[in-house]
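User: Second chain of the day. Same drill as before.
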Amino acid sequence: MAEEKIGLALSGGGSRAIAFHLGCLRALDELGILERVKVISTVSGGSVIGALFAANTDPFPAFEERVRNHLTSGFVRPAIGKVFTTTEGLRAFFCAAVLIPTNIIISLIAFVAQWLLLLIPPDQRAKWRVEKLHSPFRRFASRTTLLERVFDDTLFGGTLLRDLPADGPLLVVNASDLRTGSAFYFTQKQSGSWRYGELADRNITLAHAVTASAAYPALLPALDEVLPFNKKDGTRREERVNLTDGGVYDNLGLAPLWPDRDPKVSLNVTDIDTIICCKAGYGLRFDQPTQFLPARMKSVFYCVHDRAQNAATQRLFDLLSLGKLKGVLMPYLGQADSRLKCPPDDLVTREEAYNYPTDFSGMSQEWIDRLVRRGEQVTKALVAEHWPHVLIGKP
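Assistant: Same format as last time:
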């Protein structure tokens, strides 16, 4: 393993992902693999623990204890508390009071205009495109900015991305930009996307990056910002971006680690030949029959989301079979236990662990132990099966 260039991907999945990934990190630390990781690519819940690890300077047991404490308290109650105890709560209320009626009026105008356009000849409708109608106001505060305040106060204490330890792995925090449908990466070296260019402002807090990555769109509004970017032609331009959960684009966090990325187009291209992907995403869904639009669209969303993750997983192992990667390891919360060739006798089964919800509420000690143990056991079992040379000299 000494010569391999390892990239570690930590998937999304809320607090469930944080606990499962903690177990995976513990196993990798005990086996001496974690210290060899060159890049950590993170999404949503994976970004929370990934950023905590990247900023950590304590021994692993102290880091684990801190993560467990955060899992116990959760982030939902502290965010609700910020609503009533900070000016950010007042700003969020004011912003909602302005945006909600404004967007209702604009939607009604667009609806009526769409029908009136039917009276105009088709070849003349293009110059009356109503889809360009939008609110003149930007969402400057929301539930998402309240969560950012919680992350900054309780997790990162104002730490900037550029202040992360220089001798540690490169942290890539994955977010998604809704305006362009592209990935937006935050790192201590470069931030931005291939569509916008490199972010000119390097004073980005770790809390801001993690919040953008964890803003699950069904519950949290996108971060609506105007940011300066340095273009590849040497110019600088401000762009309005809408940043949301990185899982919308790639819930496994594998995109920054693909070996065929082009540095002429993409940012933060690193030389990776071995990938460990810790996957705490969807479990074995068996939803109720859907009869109405909201439930039907929810099932459609999860179906598309699940298939996208399967496609990324297939690509990962295709690259391995083609020889473009030296090694692949995928500790998976929903791993079929019968396929593990080296399971421990006290294995926490898939059925015991996979169906914890993916929110950021406080977690009981029982569930923390269960998910952490599952992550540790599955990781060690897969290392024993696929990378047995790592275990030489280990008890």
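The beta strands are 6-10, 37-43, 170-177, 182-186, 192-193, 197-199, 223-230, 236-245, 274-278, 327-329.

User: Great, on to the next one.
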